[in-house]
Design a protein that fits this description.
433 residues, alpha/beta, Spore Coat Polysaccharide Biosynthesis Protein SpsA, Chain A, UDP N-Acetylglucosamine Acyltransferase, domain 1, eight-stranded parallel beta sheet, 8 helices, 37 strands, 17% helix, globular
Length: 433
């Protein structure tokens, strides 16, 4: 069986990299695509034009489409069902296109950069993705017009948490959880979507080769917690590599840890993917986030639903729905104004400002970008690679004798210096009456 990966030629700002180089759960998108297709029994080749596909039937997937293993499996089951229907009734062969029914799974995070919204034959609304099964291909017609929607069945649960109505009019923040997830990587906001929605499937994939350790996870959690209480056992339920050091007071739930990970006392890590040699400081909170190799999170920091690159540092006290490139840094007291009170967040896409479709979205720092102390970015903004933002040096105190910045006042002017008291030789006590 043959599968083709179509090179789209797109570049993802601000990283200026191809979609295939974008990392989801610390693995490049191209590695994920090739791995899942190869394990499904397909020979994978890269092409730059659909007309270069020479073997039919075949799978055709664009190089910017992220999909989980259960999503691919569900689509292939629909393909087999269609082929059985064709052989049984001698009907005309048709092309199929992967789709998901619109729900929290497709509309929760930056829906502008989800698949194309289409109406199916049953009248329902779907999101269509660039994963095709082609029986034939007509070069004189658009590819979208040559395939029927194949909605992938899936189950979804929603984890709700209460939030202030200023941030969400419904008063709740909904996090959809499903093993079936798809997302085109066309914008940096899509990295947040892919890392968040693909997390359940990634945890399942990580537990596959370690099936024995996964089966023993409840026992391992009880041993680590030194207790049989469910709440304490849950706080020690994680898959860890070699050399990890997790403080006994840390709470780590349903996470995948690389080698030599360090988690400080009182830290809470929930639903996270941590690369090798990641360090998380004391009392930090890390939820539904991917951290690259050697990434660091300062103590007392809250980090949610973000993607952090290799050797990046998160020092901002609160960061959510953001992306940090390799070697990027968020200093303490810096951060992002990560919501829009009156509408959806606007982002830069292909040279113009568009709505991302969501009222909550953080910011993006390119590779090696630096956000200095006291600098706050607006929601949806991005820093190019190597960009350094710091406060105006004129606002810094550089010489107290040559004038002070506006807003800084010296209060000890005119005060008399305290007179030293000569206590005499050998006298160490206070003055006598």
């Amino acid at each position: 069986m043959q599968a083709y990966i179509l090179e789209t030629g797109r570049r993802i700002a601000p990283f200026d990299e191809r979609p295939a180089e974008m990392r989801v759960h610390n693995r490049s998108l191209r590695q994920t695509q090739e791995r899942f297709l190869s394990e499904a029994g397909y020979r994978v080749d890269a092409i730059d034009d659909p007309r270069a596909a020479s073997r039919f039937p075949c799978l055709l997937v664009f190089d910017d489409v992220y999909f989980t293993r259960p999503a691919l499996s569900g689509f292939l089951r629909l393909v087999k069902r269609a082929e059985a229907h064709k052989h049984g009734r001698a009907s005309e062969a048709v092309n199929l296109r992967a789709a998901l029914a619109t729900s929290e799974l497709t509309e929760r995070f930056a829906p502008t950069f989800q698949g194309r919204r289409m109406v199916g034959a049953d009248g329902r609304t779907y999101r269509a993705y660039d994963l095709y099964h082609l029986q034939r291909f007509a070069s004189d017609r658009p590819l979208d017009d040559q395939a029927q929607l194949a909605p992938i069945p899936h189950r979804m649960t929603v984890r709700n948490s209460r939030v202030n109505r200023y941030f969400e009019p419904t008063g709740r923040f909904a996090l959809p959880m499903s093993f079936v997830a798809m997302c085109p990587i066309q914008h940096w906001a899509s990295l947040v979507t892919a890392n968040a929605l693909g997390l359940p499937s990634h945890v399942l994939d990580a537990a596959g080769p370690l099936w024995l350790a996964a089966m023993k996870l409840p026992l391992a959690g009880a041993w680590r917690a030194r207790s049989l209480r469910p709440c304490q056992v849950l706080g020690k339920s994680y898959l860890a590599g070699s050399g990890c050091k997790i403080h006994p007071t840390a709470y780590v739930e349903w996470s995948v840890l690389g080698n030599d990970v360090r988690i400080g006392p009182g830290a809470v890590v929930r639903g996270a993917v941590l690369g090798n040699r990641v360090e998380i400081g004391p009392n930090a909170l890390v939820e539904y986030t991917t951290l690259g190799e050697k990434a660091t999170v300062n103590g007392n920091v809250t980090l949610r639903l973000s993607a952090v690159g290799d050797e990046a540092n998160v020092g901002s006290f609160f960061t959510q729905l953001s992306v940090l490139g390799r070697g990027a840094a968020l200093c303490p007291t810096s951060g992002t104004y990560d919501f829009n009170l009156r509408g959806n967040v606007s982002v830069n896409f292909q040279g113009r400002s568009v709505s991302c479709g969501s009222r909550i979205l953080g910011s993006c720092l390119g590779h090696g970008a630096f956000l200095g102390a006291g600098v706050v970015m607006a929601s949806g903004q991005e820093l190019p690679n190597g960009c350094i933002l710091v406060r105006n040096p004129r606002e810094l105190v550089s010489d107290i004798n040559q004038g002070l910045p506006e807003g800084v006042v010296r209060m000890d002017r005119g005060r008399k210096a305290p007179r030293a008291v000569d206590r005499g030789p050998g006298r160490t006590g206070g003055a006598s009456g």
